[in-house]
Amino acid sequence: MISTILPTYARAPLTFVKGEGSWLVDANGRRFLDMAGGIAVNVLGHAHPALVAAVTEQAGQLWHTSNLYHIPKQQELADKLVSATFADTVFFTNSGTESMECAVKMARKYHYELGAPDRVDVITFENAFHGRTMAMISAAGQEKLTKGFGPLMPGFVHVPYDTIETVAAAITDTTAAILIEPIMGEGGIVPIEDAFMKGLRALCDEHGILLIFDEIQCGVGRTGKLFAHEWSGITPDIMAIAKGIGGGFPLGACLATEKAAAGMVAGSHGSTYGGNPMACAVGSVVMDHVDNVEFLSEVSQKAGHLRQGLEGLVASHPDIFETVRGTGMMIGLKCKVTNTDVVKAGYDEQLLSVPGGDNVVRLLPALNITIAELDEALSRLDNVAHKLKAAL
Ligand SMILES: *Cc1c(COP(=O)(O)O)cnc(C)c1O
User: Is the domain of 260 the same as that of 273?
Assistant: First the structure.
């Protein structure tokens, strides 16, 4: 008999009842060190006092009005995002995939309004991940996402992440935009090289097409910059965010320049919940903490410490781990043994991590995790490696 919850998730046999900072506690009081971070969501850890206060205060005031009316917390968060980024304007959503939907609709409308309604195609990269709606599985194109769900949506052209010439060759007079994750997340933590990022910007400028970044996983301080693309020195025309911005409350956003957003007017797009007072009250406090030079430099410092420890771990366990890659607190540990075995062995050590593509184990901890906790994670990973080696 089918479970009462649609069985689309392969869940670990773990149930948590409480969270404190970088720790999750199960019903038996066992404490797990959380290096999964709710898949890059819990940027300030669990039950952060400032987030608890923000959500509690808002809950006693007003939960929801819809976008029929002005929402002061939404305005506040939009102003913070605009002042901190390339963007001039923001559309709020409840998830990453919805932020991406807005981005693609906006890109098409941009060209339509410019008198080029045939410019509809978005160039995307193999092994990318942009969410689970029909359009976003079509955008990513990987068989593991699309199989059985056809017909897929037209309007996406898939290219490998290799040279800029490959991308250039895919541009035609129906191309509307290029879409990329500055660090591919689900694909196994693959950072896009700065030169490639710059090359994409140049191609878009040359052809009058829009550059869209999916920073749903890599954004909001995760790499030690507020947004990952800042490392490359270029900016997009449109950017989708989610995950970290809500700190655990469902919240996403599509950010854009005034030029790219020119086609979006009253009635073009909408969402009942998007930018709701509860979500924006939390998002606004997340921004106050993360959009801070000291906070971000601490993220980089701590990430450097973690990185060094992981390099050591790879060196001492060459038959278990192959390499470490990623930026900041977005780390991929490429495994020689099956990555899901490493994640599972972690559960026995009360350590949480996330499997990713290319046989990678992802470490996506809270950005305010301490050095002592990172050392604890390294020590537990060392135990995992010893146990797996003994079983080889
Ligand atoms: C998680 C993720 C998404 C989808 O976000 P949802 O909130 O699950 O809809 C899209 N793109 C990237 C890069 C992601 O990591």
Answer: yes
Give the H or E element holding residue 136.
Answer: helix 134-140
Task: Check: CB of residue 77 under 8 Å from CB of residue 255.
Answer: no
- Among the candidates 244, 271, 290, a domain finishes at 290
213: Cβ below 6 Å to ligand 1?
no
Residue 321 lies in a domain: yes
Å from CA of 146 to ligand 1 middle: 16
Q: Whole domain around residue 151: which residue ranges? A: 50-290
Q: Which of 347, 287, 368 is nearest to 26 (CA)?
A: 347
Share of residues in the chain with pLDDT > 90 (%): 100
| DSSP-assigned beta bridge partners for residue 377 | none
pLDDT for 303: 98
Which atom from ligand 1 is nearest to the alpha carbon of 181?
Answer: 13
- C-alpha–C-alpha distance, residues 72 and 180, integer Å: 32
**Å from CA of 188 to ligand 1 middle:** 14
Instruction: State the distance from the centre of ligand 1 to the C-alpha of 374, rounded, in angstroms.
Output: 25
pLDDT for 107-152, tens place per residue?
999 999 999 999 999 999 999 999 999 999 999 999 999 999 999 9
| Domain of residue 373, CATH code | 3.90.1150.10
How many structural domains compose the chain? 2
Judge if 331 and 381 occupy the same domain: yes
Centroid of ligand 1 to alpha carbon of 129 (angstroms): 7
Mean confidence (pLDDT) of the chain: 98
99, 227: one domain:
yes
Average pLDDT, integer, range 149-162 = 98
Which of 41, 97, 212 for a ligand 1 pocket mutation test, highest count of atoms within 8 Å of Cβ? 97
Number of H helices and E strands in the chain, helices first, is: 12, 17
Ligand 1 contacts CB of residue 95 (under 6 A): yes
The structure tokens listed for 116 are: 């080029």
**Assigned domain for 10 exists:** no
pLDDT band with cut points at 50, 70 and 90 for residue 215: very high
